[in-house]
């Protein structure tokens, strides 16, 4: 039997600006990555998202990003490894405060957006992020792009590391995600998205935009909660995975 976690980026509203039908999406995912205020989210949104995740028995993780609300954390910034370390520790701490008030534990940490993509390629940034997670708690799981510098850094330092794949993104022949600046970065066809996920989970492969087979490990699948049909897709992908005899379960049960 194959097993995979379904994770979703949540808590990405800010003030009066709201995103996603997160209360409903939480019925279909097993892990939630909660924004910690740098790229999105605010204290009230964090508190409410934590509450909703607990009510739905969804595991909770910190989703630290770059300090860029206007760019939603998707614009690269020139930062040092020390700055990356400090940002990650700070944001984990913010979410941990809310979890402590609920006697809830944090399952994982998953960097967001540009920080995620930068650490997938930059060894020094990846090592700084892995060190930050380890220093806060060695029991935390580090989520990173499958086969990236971030997952390598996590494994090297001794963290439990989850290799992440994406349902709605296309891949390059080197295993990286196609840049969002390109028109073919996103997969909008649900059948194509789900077929890609089933193949990644059961075969450990994805077909790149260059039409080559890329080997990867799929421990957790990201589905985005801010898409036009996010809720319907979340339900569809979970049902399809289970119909293919794939167990949908959090990393730490």
Automatic annotation (TrEMBL):
Catalyzes the cleavage of 5-oxoproline to form L-glutamate coupled to the hydrolysis of ATP to ADP and inorganic phosphate. This is 5-oxoprolinase subunit A. The keyword ATP-binding applies. It is an enzyme of class 3 (hydrolase). Keywords: ATP-binding, Hydrolase, Nucleotide-binding. It catalyses: 5-oxo-L-proline + ATP + 2 H2O = L-glutamate + ADP + phosphate + H(+). CDD domains: LamB_YcsF_like. Signal peptide: none annotated. Its EC number is 3.5.2.9. The keyword Phosphoprotein does not apply. One of its GO terms (biological process) is carbohydrate metabolic process. InterPro entries: Glyco_hydro/deAcase_b/a-brl (IPR011330), LamB/YcsF/PxpA-like (IPR005501). Forms a complex composed of PxpA, PxpB and PxpC. It comes from the Bacteria. Belongs to the LamB/PxpA family. One of its GO terms (molecular function) is 5-oxoprolinase (ATP-hydrolyzing) activity.
């Amino acid at each position: 039997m194959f097993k995979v976690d379904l994770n979703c980026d949540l808590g990405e509203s800010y003030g009066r600006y709201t995103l996603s039908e997160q209360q409903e999406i939480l019925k279909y995912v097993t892990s939630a990555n909660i924004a910690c205020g740098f790229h999105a989210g605010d204290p009230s949104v964090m508190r409410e998202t934590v509450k909703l995740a607990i009510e739905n028995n969804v595991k909770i993780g910190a989703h630290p990003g770059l300090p860029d609300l206007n760019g939603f954390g998707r614009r690269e910034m020139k930062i040092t490894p020390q700055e990356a370390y400090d940002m990650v520790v700070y944001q984990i701490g913010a979410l941990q405060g809310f979890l402590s008030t609920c006697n809830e534990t944090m399952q994982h940490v998953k960097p967001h957006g540009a920080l995620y993509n930068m650490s997938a390629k930059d060894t020094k940034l990846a090592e700084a992020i892995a060190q930050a997670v380890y220093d806060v708690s060695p029991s935390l799981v580090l989520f990173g792009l499958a086969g990236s510098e971030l997952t390598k850094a996590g494994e090297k330092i001794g963290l439990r590391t989850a290799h992440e794949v994406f349902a709605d993104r296309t891949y390059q022949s080197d295993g990286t995600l196609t840049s969002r600046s390109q028109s073919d970065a996103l997969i909008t066809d649900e059948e194509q998205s789900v077929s890609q996920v089933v193949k990644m989970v059961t075969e450990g492969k994805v077909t790149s935009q260059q039409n080559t087979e890329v080997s990867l490990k799929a421990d957790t699948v990201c589905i985005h909660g801010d898409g036009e049909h996010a809720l319907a897709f979340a339900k569809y992908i979970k049902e399809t995975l289970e119909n293919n005899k794939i167990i949908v379960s959090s990393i730490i049960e």
